[in-house]
Amino acid sequence: MFAKVIIDISNANVDRLFTYSIPDELEIDPGHRVLVPFGRGNKQIEGFVIETFEETTTNISFEIKPILRRMEPYTVLLPDQLKLSEWITRAYHCTRADALRVMIPAKLRGSRIKEKIVRTFLLAEDIDIQAARNSLLKKDGSPRSPKQLEIFDLIANSGLEISSEDINSYIPNASAAINALVGKGMLIESGHVTFRNPFANERIISTDPPLLTDEQKAALNIINSEEPGRCILLHGVTGSGKTEVYMQAIASVLESGGGAILLVPEISLTPQTTDRFRSRFGELIAVLHSHLSDGERYDEWRRIRFGKAKVVIGARSAVFAPVENLQLIVIDEEHEPSYQSETTPKYSAIEVALRRIKLTNARLVLGSATPSLGDYYKAKRGLFTLAEMPDRINGIPLPKVDIVDMRDEFLNGNDSIFSNFLTENLHRCLDNGEQAILFLNRRGYSSHAECRACGFVFTCPNCDVALTYHKYDETLRCHYCGAHFSMPKLCPGCGKEYLKYTGIGTQQVEEQLIKLFPEIRCIRMDTDTTGGKTSHRELLSAFGSGKADVLIGTQMVAKGLDIPNVTLVGVIFADSTLFHSDYRSSERTFQLLTQVAGRAGRAEKNGNVIIQTNAPEHRAIRLCKNHDYKSFYALEIRDRMHTLFPPFAVFIRAMFIGYDEAHAYESSERFAKGITLRLLSTYKLYNSEKELLFVAPGAAPIKRRSNEFRYSVIIKLVRTSHTAAAINAIYAFGDEFNDEYYRGVEINPADML
Ligand code: ADP
Ligand code: ZN
What we know:
Strand content: 15-25%
Bound molecules: adenosine-5'-diphosphate, zinc ion
Radius of gyration: 30 Å
Helix content: 25-40%
Strand order of the largest sheet: 11-12-10-13-14-9-15
């Protein structure tokens, strides 16, 4: 028998199948990881077995080396994952090794992680208990070693096998004494592999599924009766009960013996969502996200691989989880940019899911209150099946939204960050003993520091961006390279004492709020306060249990929160995401505002949302008032069609990065010239040269980052049936483009910075 193996080295030169022989004593299947001798020096390297075959042709002219051993006794990749990896290699133009690596826990490779072994001890089988005990006593009957005697009695009396952890909890510092008893042959050490449990210290309260509303029933019915391989777009307003629909769809998959994957944005992963699922499905749930330790992630992954967990909840990369008989993938908040990977392979979890369901005959559900325009467009054209839930559960109304023009507020003499209307409403909310969320789309105390006298602005010495002032430790920080400096008293430009902070941050909102409401209890949540493994969860649960009146936060308060006592949501400044140079800024603003508005009034009490803005007439803000996704979609998609933006066009970006600016610049120019010719000749085959809209070389918006210069070539193509051929031509051109500054191409990058 022979095996075709992908060597676990990410390098185009070795990115092909190598043949090895399988020694008789080894049982090797596709999906096993193996150790093989590689290259002239027969260096031992890990690899993935892609296929196995029997020798048919009689003489093979080259020497075939044998596989040395299996890395794991089980296959680490399922057959559908092997096929998926082949597709990823083609679709995202990466090596097969890169495509295979994303499917297994990183630390599995190179055997950097070990099973956790629980050491246990039991009485040796053949000893005379009384004689053994006596030997532990002195002549006068007192113990030679009190600890040894205590341990011996504990184990002898219980008749059980006891773990060293448990022994130590009865008898502190027992380890040396245990070892001594083992040495005397009285105890036998045993042990077994255990799974680290990230939820070890939490209780689960199990819940029964509620009766579905008619809207939910209809949506569930569409999902359950859809053909395998199809995608359903579930458009349901915030609080319409989408999560409940996911749970019941998953329940019916489990009933028929299948498994399921639920992707949620990383940020909404820790707190409420997983608890809801675990209380319904218990130990069948496995969770994969970036806050797990390597050991925990490895153990969760194995619980999935061995079928102990059949439902995986995770962030983007959980789309690769080794779920056997995968019947359903659900992607919640499908419009979130975090489903796009920014590291190799630069995949879209939605595209991967669409491919994977074809391979396993599963179905895909994309859920959102504000679907991405591209996906809604696909649903409108019948490529996806549309299911809609336009109302909240139990006739609860969507919150009332008021828009406050902050320019009027300023003209009327109010230059604080709270409009009078928001202040009044906060008063009422607090008087009623209800809770509020204040949302600000920024982090830090203020965006940057500048001098009122000379206009000096603090910028990062390594990157072309302004530094952010952080009040808690009086520092100026760069969010791109991490450089930080303490804030000087005097302006370095003119030496005067006129430094001020422009823009607003969550800390400033908190300070001003305390001035207005001295008694108020606030929790502030942004990337500065939620560093650790549990703090995000802790802050939310403190707020959820009423330990604070107001939650102030950035993006991370916008999603998934379901707190019945929250009746007021204030958006401090809605415009901060609006006037970016990105074509998606209006779509993203609408999505974010709708999401955050959806946190208000989710139970009996009515909700109020107040959006403060300088651009009340902008459609992304105006249409939030009536939660009017469909009008927003109709206007925005019409504009995109007229101006040829995605989904009607594709942006492709090639990056050139390095310390020498002239080099970076010249590389981008040379690439632009070459790719223009290549694309024109590709399109000529179809008589469609007009589909190449432009090729634009130039400096990236952040031209210097960590002292490296960044140039890009942006290519814009009309999306047609020829686009795939054009993209392949770009990949091929990139492979031939011999330049150390070239960093590959991205299709529709999540941001253009
Ligand atoms: P969405 O995910 O669409 O925002 P959720 O699934 O979180 O909505 O549902 C909103 C609230 O309604 C939750 O508190 C949930 O427990 C509750 N809920 C959902 N479905 C039902 C139902 N059929 N009957 C009663 N309560 C429900
Ligand atoms: Zn920097």
